[in-house]
Specification:
Layout lengths: L2 H14 L3 H7 L7 H11 L4 H7 L4 H43 L5 E6 L2 E9 L7 H8 L5 E6 L10 E6 L2 E2 L25 H14 L3 E2 L12 H18 L10
Antiparallel strand pairs: 1-2, 2-3, 3-4, 5-6
Pfam family, one: UQ_con
GO molecular function, one term: ubiquitin conjugating enzyme activity
Function: Probable E2 ubiquitin-protein ligase that catalyzes the covalent attachment of ubiquitin to target proteins. May facilitate the monoubiquitination and degradation of MTOR and CCNE1 through interaction with FBXW7.
């Protein structure tokens, strides 16, 4: 056999037994597209399948599906929260109404605002009879203190917003717009176990402790007495107490 024939035979054998890795590199093997070949090389180099898959272009359809699933999950959470709020308030309202019917002189009574379960008017009929505030109420023939309660979507895991509507009260931890300075009504001081009754009775105690009095005439430079103003005052109150705490300094300390 001539030397040229020998070279041809050797070349044929090299082509026949060429390694799969070289075939991949040449694009003639079973690895397919360049992206697929790159994925195989990364896998051989120790890259996990998840990392390799993440390097491939994402599908718009898959992204849209993830967003839809996220929106659906958020909707389910809101529905469950609404159901919890409704059940809790229905239970409390029934209990309060039962007490109103069974007691000739209940400490407070409740009525829904425009039949809205999430917005209540509470009339506080009883406070410490020896207090100056009770004396003011008797003198001015005011039968009760009217409170307005609004329950947020995440109640009972967040506190209701409560303000005094009438009469206008000075001191007694009652602020502008009728907002109430009471730690129990703040996110930090609230606990889901607190009931509406506990909130109302706590106010009845604090307004007397704070030496509240019925305002005989509005101050000369009084600001708007409204829910909006009360909410502004309460937000400012929460920020202040979040920064400095709820410790009241002695009068000698200013």
């Amino acid at each position: 056999m001539t030397s040229r024939s020998k070279e041809k035979v050797a070349a044929a054998f090299r082509k026949l037994f060429r390694s799969p890795e070289k075939l991949d590199n040449d694009g003639a093997g079973p690895s397919g597209s360049p992206a697929r070949r790159g994925l195989l090389r990364r896998h051989r180099d120790g890259v996990s399948p998840a990392e390799a898959a993440a390097s491939l272009p994402s599908s718009p359809g898959a992204t849209s599906l993830v967003k839809k699933k996220g929106s659906a999950a958020a909707g389910e959470v809101r529905e469950r929260a609404a159901a919890v709020r409704t059940r809790r308030l229905m239970k409390e309202l029934k209990e309060i109404q039962r007490l109103q019917e069974n007691r000739p002189d209940p400490a407070f009574t409740v009525e829904l605002v425009n039949d809205n379960l999430f917005e209540w008017h509470v009339r506080l009929h009883q406070i410490d009879p020896e207090s100056e505030l009770a004396g003011d109420l008797r003198e001015l023939h005011i039968p009760n203190i009217l409170l307005h309660l609004i329950f947020p979507e995440n109640f009972p895991f967040a506190p209701p917003f409560m303000r005094v509507i009438e009469p206008r009260i000075e001191k007694g931890f009652v602020m502008e717009g009728g907002a109430i300075c009471m730690e129990l009504l703040t996110p930090r001081g609230w606990a889901s176990a607190y009931t509406v009754e506990a909130v109302v009775m706590q106010f009845a105690a604090s307004v007397v402790k704070g030496q509240g009095r019925v305002a005989r005439a509005p101050p000369r430079h009084s600001r708007e007495f409204s829910r909006r103003r009360a909410e502004e005052a309460f937000r400012s109150l929460v920020k202040t107490h979040d920064k400095y705490g709820w410790v009241t300094p002695a009068l000698s300390d200013g």
